[in-house]
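Design job #97: recover the sequence.
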């Protein structure tokens, strides 16, 4: 038998170099020619070793496992979004083996989608599915890495003070309170609806945004101001309730769901603004907080570029050049 020489300690086991060609020796002692090229040899090695695992596997079965193991670890709204997005991806790619899907297939899907932003989100989700497929041994490569996203224009809707108060004064008491919290703190709707007595502390309103719970774990402490105390109904001598129900409740004291709140918000917008382009979303109030605040930490972004790109919407006030003759 020819002498086997390992070519690199970082190569997979049972890969050898013989006469300037890379070979893989399986457990039956059969030699498989890979390639003279180092990177092609690695790719061929992966194909040989994954073939038994990939046999009979389609994206449909991988999506099933992703729905079972990964989606439940995400935020509730993200779970709903992902479930709908995966249904669309499954309808197109579900019958295909992961190695059959090419960048051209994905570009075709995105072009046919005719919703550039949603297509980007679905492509990003498909890429995440592939990352887990590779981790689980169901795929050797991620075709999404070669696919460029559609260009997106950041939303630039800025809610003026007049618009805010016009909507606020026609809204129900729960929506009014939520609006005030949103502009004072920049919190997302899901975090506002989850606030309860446990968030009230001696030093301020302590919040761990749900979106960062599984990533940075960052917490935000909003120091008490007379305005924030008034919004939440917290007295100056209150040193922390530590318990109690939701801070934003329905008219009968019941907790509010995100979907129920959004339905009420949409009805309110339609009653006040005849033209769709005049309306604004509740999430636009987070951008108003980011635009109006002088504290770049208010929205809790680890990367200030996110704040500047998506949430700084207020026009910059600049001084014109003085012309002297």
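Job complete. Output follows.
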């Amino acid at each position: 038998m020819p002498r086997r020489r390992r070519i690199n300690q970082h190569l997979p086991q049972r890969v050898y170099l013989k006469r300037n060609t890379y070979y893989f020796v399986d457990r039956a002692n059969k030699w498989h020619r890979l390639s003279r090229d180092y990177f092609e040899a690695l790719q061929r090695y992966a194909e040989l070793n994954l073939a038994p695992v990939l046999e009979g596997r389609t994206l449909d079965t991988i999506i099933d496992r992703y729905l079972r193991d990964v989606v439940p670890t995400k935020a509730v709204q993200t779970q709903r979004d992902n479930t709908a997005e995966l249904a669309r991806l499954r309808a197109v790619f579900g019958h295909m083996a992961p190695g059959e899907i090419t960048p051209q297939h994905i570009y075709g899907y995105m072009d046919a989608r005719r919703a550039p932003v949603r297509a980007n989100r679905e492509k990003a989700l498909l890429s995440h599915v592939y990352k887990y497929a590779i981790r689980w041994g169901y795929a050797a490569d991620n075709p999404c890495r070669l696919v460029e996203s559609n260009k997106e224009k950041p939303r630039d809707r800025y809610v003026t003070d007049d618009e805010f108060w016009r909507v606020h004064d026609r809204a129900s008491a729960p929506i009014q309170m939520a609006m005030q919290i949103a502009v004072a703190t920049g919190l997302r709707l899901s975090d506002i609806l989850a606030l309860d007595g446990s968030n009230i502390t001696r030093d301020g309103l302590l919040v761990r945004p749900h979106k960062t719970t599984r990533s940075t774990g960052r917490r935000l402490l909003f120091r008490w101001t007379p305005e924030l105390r008034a919004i939440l109904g917290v007295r100056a001598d209150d040193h922390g309730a530590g318990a109690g129900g939701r801070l934003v409740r329905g008219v009968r004291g019941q907790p509010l769901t995100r979907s129920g709140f959004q339905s009420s918000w949409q009805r309110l917008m339609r009653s006040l603004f005849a033209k769709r382009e005049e309306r604004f979303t509740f999430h636009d109030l987070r951008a108003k907080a980011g635009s109006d605040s002088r504290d770049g930490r208010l929205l809790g972004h680890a990367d200030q570029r996110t704040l500047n790109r998506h949430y700084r919407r207020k026009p910059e006030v600049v001084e014109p050049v003085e012309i002297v003759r």
